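Same chain as my last thread, 290 residues:
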Amino acid sequence: MQKLSTILPGIPVSDLPLSDLREQYIGKQLSRKDFEGRIFQFLLDNYQRFHLFDHDRDAFTDYLCWLYPRLSRAIDAYKEVGASFDAYIGSIVRWSSKEYRSRAADHRITECACWETRATEDLATGECTPPYLADENFEPVKNPRQVLILLLKSYFFVSDDFIARVAPAIGVSPYSLTLMINKLRELRKEREEEIRDLQEKLNCQYYRCVVYRRQLESLPETAARRETMRGRLERAQVRYTKIKQRLAAINCGASNSQIARVLGIPKGTVDSTLYTIKQKAMRGVYKPRE
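reply #2:
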């Protein structure tokens, strides 16, 4: 990309208004590509004017690369009413930097959370083998159906090795028990996909609310569009709340209905069995092995 000082010799880049560039573009003296490129170079060469990113040129360059597609659309959206083209581009650079910082902060938080989760998993894999894994198998249980239903309820935390050793104790073949658990795992994948879709919609709706709020704050108190923008913001906030409620209502654990379908028994049987287990646990009937 050529510098403006080489294209227009004798004129300092910092003194060349963007409005003049736009006039050249409208007059067909500049192609669209050159026009956008010169705006980009002008902003980069004058990054200290905007007082962003602590005057860090590299950080400002990364920001401009992110802004470039929006800058191209903003050129078409500009109308010669009110602010000059220079002020218009300057306001876009400043306002968009807030969203850029917000997204960058979200990415940092997500990245830290991912690394923290990964570190936790690494620590978990380095832990000592739990004592129960030293046993070759389990002794037969008195009420195998209760153990089976409780096992399916906790399927997410069950390993293949545990399945192979606990299956004989409850009178079920390891193959049959694995099929039941895999069915519940498939159902969980469907719910996780639904959760990801809702999370994406929630994020989009959140940023939509931010944009509407900023647009509303930028309008004068007497502006006719203020009520329209307030209505958009309120509707967006309602949709955001509904999506958030739907997301919170999704449970990735196995439901009693799903367990009943996998076992081919009535849901009421699963409900009563789990209730009985809960009551026994509260009375201290189930105690950990010493």
